[in-house]
Amino acid sequence: MLKAVLFDFNGIIINDEPLHEKLIDQLLLEENLRPKPGEFRQFCLGRSDRTGLTDLLTHRGRVVTEAAVQKLIARKSAAYQSELGKLETLPTYPGLQDLIFKLRAAKLQMAIVSGATRAEIDLVLQRLQLSEFFPVIVSGDQRLPSKPDPNGYLLAVDRLNQTNPDLQLHPSECLAIEDTFAGIEAAKRAHIPVVGVANTYPFHMLHRRANWVVDYLSDLELDRVQQTYDQTAAAKAR
Q1: Best CA proximity match to 136, nearest among 150, 151, 120, 152
Q2: Fold of 17-85
Q3: Residues paired with residue 197 on neighbouring β-strands, in sequence order
Q4: The model's pTM
Q5: Rounded distance, CA 145 to CA 151, Å?
Q6: Beta-carbon neighbour count of residue 22 at 10 Å?
Q7: pLDDT tens, residue by residue, 110-149
Q8: Residue 177 and residue 198: Cα distance in Å, rounded?
């Protein structure tokens, strides 16, 4: 049965991919590098800042040290939080609050699995008054391999079990919600069924990658998804 829903953050909880691209371009200019079209999607989209910046700068011929990357991440995170501080209302996606209400009503556990920094995630959740609903947050600060590596999702499952030992949660009893190819692959490699939301890529580009695809979070029919899990569990029990 379905016991937990694991959310990506950027592109699912908050509509901030354009801001991240702007801030990456700003970092490049500060490093005397001219931003090039398509580089953000190629190297950074759906991946942690640590991995994205390292690969992007290496591609540009720079020798990248861990200390230098950490300074870039800190500068970008500070700029991100400053930009959000200027906004009266944070940009979220239609259906987010309603979906979280349905998940709470169904008594499903929730977690976030993201390459974003913990400070960024906490800021957004606090502004949206959602902090209490996500007892487990796996963030980029933990220096796990970036998506599409599955370790972030597997760690979230372990931590949900630690917070609620009676849950006895297995990856197959979770649902991931993702918007990028890397995120979808990470969930599937963790053996977690995944919903692809067409917030970043068109519906048809996600269709063959995810178990379910929706145009908007508001299109996700939780009852039908739960029925699929129940049917799978019943088939295994035979």
Answers
A1: 152
A2: DNA polymerase; domain 1 (1.10.150)
A3: 214
A4: 0.94
A5: 7
A6: 15
A7: 999 999 999 999 999 999 999 999 999 999 998 899 999 9
A8: 11
